[in-house]
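Lecture notes, structural biology module. Today: joint structure prediction for complexes of two components.
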Amino acid sequence: MSDNYFIDLHPFSFSVNTALPQVINNLSTIYGSRFRKQSTEVADYELSVQKSSGIRSFIKPQARFFCDQQEPFKPLNFQKAYAFLEWGMNWTVAGNEVQHVIIHSAVLAKGNKAILFPAPPGSGKSTLTAYLAHNGWRLLSDEMALIIPNTKTVEPFVRPICLKNQSIDIAKKLFPDGKFSDIAKDTHKGDVIHLSPPESSWENQTNTAELVGVVFPNYRANQDLQVYQLDKTQAFMQLVENAFNYSVLRETAFSTLTKVIENVQTFEIFHHDLDQVAAFLEQEIIDYE
Amino acid sequence: MSNLSADDVCQAFISPKTALMYTPKQWQQLVLILRNQQLLACYSSIFKQAGIFERIPTQAQRHFLNADVLVQNHKKQVLFEVSELKRELANSQQYFIFLKGAGYTLSGALVGESRIYNDIDILTNKESIDDMEKRLCLFGWLSEELTEHDEKYYRKWAHEIPPLRHGQRGTIVDVHHNIVPIISGRHVDADKFAKNTVITESGCQILSFAAMTLHSLIHLFFNEEVKKGYRDLIDLHTLITTNNNKVFWQDLITLAQETGFELELFLACRYTQKILNTEIPDFVQDEVSRFCPWNIMFLDFIYEKALRPNHPLCQTRFYSLAEFMILIRGHFQKMPLHILLYHLTIKAGISLIKSLFGKHVFTKELDQP
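The predicted structure, tokenised, for the full assembly:
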């Protein structure tokens, strides 16, 4: 039997209709007390994850995703149902929410000062995110940074950290007490696992932070930390490329990103030692101001 | 407080101030229903006009504001695609008329203000359609892969060619050579519609408001699908309300008679009035009441249900039955019995296999959400 669940996130809430134990268990692991049976709350978005019907539910079963009664994607292998839902949530926000300039980027903060980490998959961004979140930093976002238009203020949208391939083993060693989801195998990003950020990030999920830096991380095996200051134009263009709703928000997005870039430090870094990175970020960006 | 009903949603359209009684929870329900029906932006402008937008609870208000931005963006994109099409078809001899959503947007009238749609519809005459398809192909508009049956359905019986998708931008263009399927036997000469057009300031050809309204009501009442019935009814309401003058009505009635869609006109007047309180002048009432069919009780039963907002949160009783009957009625109107049986046998065969093996049994897995 399908039940309705409620994921109470800031600033967007979701209801999820599902009967799949895999999805329910993973949601419960990742979101903890923010995930519960829906009673009287009405969510911003109604999602649903179901097993495909008929004989297909026995032979190579598939999972289907629905948002507001529509099915935007083709089904995925059943084993990836939970990861499918997480991506579906991202898609829902990216397609509907235009009150923020949304950047494909992680955001972490020390106190009130936040750094944006936009980077393509494979750059080691999520490993860095997970490391910082477990070492005195506060996670605001792993994949979607919400910037309030015409400010440098970031609205947290705390969600699990999405780790891929080799970083799964690394993360499991680094954070033995971490709350991990099941592994979704052979997705378009390879093997994928979700890791719940530490409780302190969740507790602060309604506290905004001010951007002081934009850092583009690149993981390189056996590479001591190298830091390059990025010129403003390059940094701006890279932010634009990573903005989900730039073409929708147009002038607003342009002026917001300009304001951010003009008022923060911008770096590109190459690294393999996360400790070195953390030290650099604190000394050169957080303590600089 | 109880859950919103479909009637509450209609009532909020007719007199927006009734929504001020909603609890925050009911506002959230309204948002979910309207987003599903692609009507958030429409209601947003209604609430603004009624001067009550500021009194919407913040959480719900955000969704209306989102919809406002998305609709503006949609409009810009449509205008861009239209200018591309105009450029690409500039040297051709045939006419092309923008229909439905794109027509509404280009008209600059209220009906196009808050409308979101998935494709751009063009009408041309049947002789030029091959030429137009080839020409559009040159500019990157290609037809998608279809099953053999669907391909045959389009080419032989339908009033349009298969949808053309732009390879880079993903926009879809539907090229029609008629407004109803040829096979229905009720098709009208596309040229007849071509005579009732206007040229917009930007040089695009669209239907006159009377012809636009006729097309809109044919689309709603001569169709087997009413998933977006409530939204279409609101389009009709808006077209009627913003053009409510004698000339418009006379043109509309004449055109309906010339093309043989008097019944559909009657139904449009009847249900906009019943569901949305649309003001229909007395002389029009008298005129169209002649077209009242013998089975009006049956039609009332199905349309009064199917044309209200349809969402699991507020579904009216017997909605599914009404929807099913419209499916049957629509098919019967569109095809002679022997073709209908053939078409339904094939479709039923496919859906039988799907219900047995799962909906996506034929869908290739695409691991890319």
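Point to remember: Confidence is low (pLDDT under 50) at residues 365-369 of chain B.
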